[in-house]
Amino acid sequence: MINLKEWMMILELHQQGLSVSAIAERSGHDRKTVRKVIERGLVVPKYASRTPRPTLLGPYETYLRERVAVWPELSGVRLLREARERGYAGGVTQLNDFLRAVRPPVVAPFEVRFETPAGRQAQVDFAHFMVEFTEQPGVQHRVWLFAMVLGHSRYLWAQYVLHQDLGTVLRCHMQAFEHFGGTPHEILYDRMRTAVLGEAAEDIGIVYNAKLIGLGAHYGFKPRACKAYRAKTKGKIERPFRYVRANFFLARSFANLEDLNRQLRVWLDTVANARQHGSTGRVVSEHFAAERACLKALPAGRFDAVLRTERRVSHEGMVSVGGNLYSVPDGTIKRVLEVETTADCVRIHDGHRLVAVHALLHGRRQRSVLPGHRQPRRSNAAPEAQEHRVVKPAGHSVARRGLEIYAAVAERLGAASRVGAVLTRSTGGAR
Fold it and tell me: Quick one: which of 87, 263, 308, 336 has the most CB atoms within 10 Å?
């Protein structure tokens, strides 16, 4: 039997002018076969189909085909068990291959867009970015974009931060509410660890962070976690991240984190919230102006979220909180102090005594030293004298005295010498 490759080679050699004998010698086929190929020309050879080999699944294919036709949701494990009860001795791979070929295709239903009423819901999430600030060339920084979008108007508030800790989450919530001028009735979260602790028994449901519950009670919103592995339930917050990265973040330079957030704020006000949204067909900022009246009014004061931790005092008299250092006064005896962190400040306690209150630092590797925490060391010698003083061995130091002291000493020495001369003469005369 001649295959397609050999068939094409014979035709090509014939076009080159070779004789039938030469082609037969080169191809290894009989001259009759060569003549037959040349006479038939470019025709794909047909091969007889192979008789299918019997398989262990063959006797059960009719049963399996009938089962999946009536119940297409039946799993392969279930059908394997039923087939083995009827004598099937093969494996699961052969059965699953057959089921994929005969199972009716599942027709996915069209998605129904979920639109929230005005003021009803906001969605919150984080996304990470890698950035190189111009103030620190060659150093890659990981920053996080906290974003909150109102589900009805698609109005977006966002801010870049360096941490995803609970204090940052609470602070960003309060800043977003103050920017909106109100709060939505509920906020949807993507099971972030700072918001959702996990799931308990069915009668309890999802367990949220106690501080987040307190924040919700203060501002009047209810936290709600989206379904696990269902990113589409929070699509209103997922799409803005791609939009921010492509339309704002890429191909820009930033001096530092403050400059990054300043440029982001300008872009949000002039581009993101000033555009006509593709889904609603309305200008986002104008749509938000109509939704603002449906938001809950802000409470009289901010939520005083206090996060208490214990921190060890370093040999420099500093405690580390969130990657930054805060000073304690000289003379602090305890090595482990209690630290309270709020949205705006850091309070350090020595037992029941408040020893320091610092403004919260939002960066990393920064130091806050309060006035009066470091007293200068006392010294009798002037700084210039200390700097140029030469230390000599004992017995080599020379004291400085006034000339009157030496005059008095000389006068006393002269008087003593005159008295000695008189005594010497008187003694000699007596002899």
Answer: 263
CA distances from 112 to 105, 227, 233, 261, 298 (A): 21, 17, 11, 36, 33
**CB-based burial, 269-301: b 16+ in 10 Å, e otherwise:** eeebbeeeeeeeeeebeebbeebbebbeebeee
Over residues 83-116, the pLDDT tens digits come to: 999 999 999 999 999 999 999 887 666 555 567 8
Tell whether the model's pLDDT for residue 141 goes beyond 80.
Answer: yes
- Please answer whether residues 170 and 148 qualify as being in contact, where contact means their C-beta atoms are separated by less than 8 angstroms: no
Distant-in-sequence, close-in-space partners of 130: CB < 8 Å, separation ≥ 6 = 140, 141, 142, 143
pLDDT band at 148 (very low <50, low <70, confident <90, very high): very high
Report the predicted TM-score, pTM, of the whole model to 2 decimal places: 0.57
296 forms beta bridges with: 183
Instruction: Locate 300 and state its tokens.
Output: 């009289």
CB 213 within 8 A of CB 147: no
Exposed/middle/buried for residue 180 (C-beta within 10 Å: 0-12, 13-18, 19+): buried
Residue 126 to residue 238: CA distance in whole angstroms = 9
**In the chain, pLDDT over 70 holds for what percent of residues?**
78
How does DSSP classify residue 283? B
Contact 262, 270 (CB under 8 A): no
d(CA 312, CA 318): 8
* Contact between residue 181 and residue 277 where contact means Cβ atoms under 8 Å apart: no
Residue 139 near residue 132 (C-beta atoms within 8 A): yes
Mean pLDDT of the 135-153 span: 93
> How far is it, in rounded angstroms, from Cα 38 to Cα 346?
94
Distance (Å, whole) CA 306 – CA 91? 60
Q: With 0-12 CB in 10 A as exposed, 13-18 as middle and 19+ as buried, what is 315?
A: exposed
Helix, strand, or coil here: 287? helix
Q: Residue 426 — pLDDT band, cuts 50, 70, 90? A: low
Structure token pair of residue 364: 């990393």
pLDDT over threshold 80, residue 65 = yes
Ranges 193-207, 357-371, 387-401, most confident: 357-371
